[in-house]
Design a protein that fits this description.
alpha/beta; two-stranded antiparallel ribbon
Length: about 160
Amino acid sequence: MAIAITLSEYLERSGMEYEVVRHPVSQYSMETAELAHIPGDRVAKTVLLEDERGFVAAVLPSTCHVQLSVLRRDTGRPLRFAREEELSELFKDCEVGAIPPLAPIYGGMATYVDDSLLQEADVYFEAGDHRELIHMRTDAFMKLMAGAERGHFSRHL
């Protein structure tokens, strides 16, 4: 599998500069950072949450955990971690566990970006499979994430 078609088309329409970074197959974002020789604080991972109102994407550095209680408080929603089997229906052109942070292009879901991710000059994120990352400047990434809420809801490992 290569870069997800939905993501590829969106990036092309955006006109933002990016590069595709290939790496050995990995299953976890911290492992991806290690195999791609990238600092883990620069690799954005997407954690999908849900409640009765639908899905929510939380985007944070691979070196952090989501503080679910903080997101629940900040959103006023009883969020829980989404089940992986539900995600394959939403992200049809992505492998399970390789969801890009641009979740709104997959159904307009609410997205939250952790401020700690924005401390770096550039960011890397899943391209829809376990072998490729998208690399771009953080300012360009945030233009793509313009509709996302920002906050601090992560805890460093």
